């Protein structure tokens, strides 16, 4: 029983390839990623990036986001108030200590982790 080599399947035989116009170098990608990281790190420890004048200095670059930079927030605020902290729904859901406590307990139940109510 000899196997014929005419129908050999080679790995990556059907993978798409870049056209010459789509080719990009690793250095181009690294540069844009480095610039994005530098932009994010420049926000840490100050509020120069804030557009609404209500933001606080945050310790992590992921936390340095203004309400005016988030499309979902700006869309909802366009009809009601200028700033997210002025929105009644935000105050009720995000700033009420009891709502936050109940939400934390519910989340703990969902994730099946231990939760001590004495922390709140």
Task: Give an overview of the whole structure.
This is RanBP2-type domain-containing protein. It comes from Patella caerulea (Rayed Mediterranean limpet). With 120 residues, the chain is mainly alpha-helical. Helix content is 38%, strand content 0%. It is built from four helices and no strands.
Q: In brief, what are we looking at here?
A:
This protein is an all-alpha fold.
Structural class: mainly alpha
Largest sheet: none
How many angstroms does the end-to-end distance come to? 74 Å
The general outline is extended
Percentage of β-strand residues: under 5%
> What's the number of helices?
4
Mean pLDDT: 74
Low-confidence stretches: none
Give the C-alpha Rg. Answer: 25 Å
Instruction: Summarize the helix and strand pattern as letters.
Output: HHHH
Beta strands, count: 0
> Quaternary state, please?
single chain
Helix content: 25-40%
Organism: Patella caerulea
Protein name: RanBP2-type domain-containing protein
Region (Disordered): 12-40
Biased composition (Acidic residues): 28-38
